Amino acid sequence: MLILFQILFSLFALFAIISVYSKKRSGLLSAGAAIFWTPFWLLAVVFVWLPNALTVVANTFGIGRGADLVLYVSLVVVFFILFRLSVKIEGLNRSITKVVRDKSLSEVLERDSSTRSARSE
User: Fold this and answer.
1) pTM
2) Which residues span the domain enclosing 98?
3) What is the count of structural domains for the chain?
4) pLDDT tens digits for range 112-121
5) How far is CA 120 from the centre of its chain?
């Protein structure tokens, strides 16, 4: 049963790597993100095929099981990504607010100048 999971996971990881490079090629993913995700999926495949290697790595850091190491690292990565996304969303909100404010002010100034020119005629 484990071999079936290993094969399915490897196929999924291959699909993920192809997707990373497809997104990179189309400009939807930065080079830095591609450099992060490709080794991530490759390491995931290595550790799925060699689960004892993950336990050795975990023991190096003083963690008893490889599954615990995966959980800890996953939580750190997820929280870091959430932090970066929230910073990016906040920046987008500020940019949108500035664009809307500038557009509104320019429309008010246009209306005001057209009203003045209509009164002077």
Assistant:
1) 0.67
2) 67-121
3) 2
4) 777 776 666 6
5) 57
